[in-house]
């Protein structure tokens, strides 16, 4: 399934199966959404697992003439979360870049998630400038 993000990007979504509350798995830089499949196999007894490819990763192309920017990755995470939204919010799980993008999406819209599990998220101090 494809969901619309910003800059004309269509984010590739993967339904990894399961039952229970929706869980969104967000990958690290250089990976893709299906890298979560072995992890999801252990979670599907309790959660309905979904993953996605950030722009420029897996089956989600980056827009032409796109400059790498955190805002684009965060928009992809937000679009993915909204596509499987639940009234109480979904559970987000992210590694590295994937954790950072879920956190950015949650800051922008706190109603998206009921909880976040972040492994090695990229979180910078306020006084450090990032592109």
Describe the structure.
- This protein is α/β, with parallel strands linked by helices.
- The chain has one domain (2-119): Alpha/Beta hydrolase fold, catalytic domain (Rossmann fold, 3-Layer(aba) Sandwich), CATH 3.40.50.
- It is 25% helix and 27% strand.
- It has three helices and six strands.
- It has helices at 37-43, 70-83, 97-108, and strands at 2-4, 10-18, 22-26, 48-52, 90-95, 113-119.
- A six-stranded mixed β-sheet has the order 1-2-4-3-5-6.
- Strand 5, helix 3 and strand 6 form a beta-alpha-beta unit.
- The chain is globular.
Structure characteristics:
25% helix; Rossmann fold; 131 residues; 3 helices; single chain; six-stranded mixed β-sheet; alpha/beta
Rg, please? 14 Å
Question: What do the pLDDT scores average to?
Answer: 94
The stretches of 5 or more residues where confidence is low (pLDDT under 50) are none
Task: Describe the strand arrangement of the main beta sheet, using strand numbers.
Answer: 1-2-4-3-5-6
Q: What percent of residues are in strands?
A: 25-35%
Number of helices: 3
- Which percent bin holds the helix content? 25-40%
> What is the string of SSEs from the N terminus onward?
EEEHEHEHE
Q: So what's the overall shape?
A: globular
CATH first level: which class? Alpha Beta
- In CATH, the topology is named Rossmann fold
CATH architecture: 3-Layer(aba) Sandwich
Beta-strand segment tally:
6
The profile of the biggest β sheet is: 6 strands, mixed
CATH superfamily: Alpha/Beta hydrolase fold, catalytic domain
Distance between the termini: 30 Å
Counting helices, strands and paired strands, the structural category is alpha/beta
């Amino acid at each position: 399934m494809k969901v619309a993000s910003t800059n004309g990007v269509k984010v590739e979504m993967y339904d990894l199966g399961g039952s229970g509350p929706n869980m969104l798995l967000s990958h690290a830089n250089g990976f893709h959404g299906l890298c979560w499949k072995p992890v999801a196999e252990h979670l599907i007894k309790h959660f309905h697992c979904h993953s996605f490819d950030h722009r420029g990763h897996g089956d989600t192309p980056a827009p032409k003439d796109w400059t790498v920017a955190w805002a684009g990755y965060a928009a992809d995470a937000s679009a993915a979360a909204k596509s499987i939204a639940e009234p109480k919010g979904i559970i987000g799980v992210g590694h590295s870049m994937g954790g950072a993008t879920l956190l950015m999406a949650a800051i922008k819209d706190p109603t998206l998630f009921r909880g976040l599990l972040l492994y090695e998220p990229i979180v910078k101090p306020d006084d450090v400038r990032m592109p």
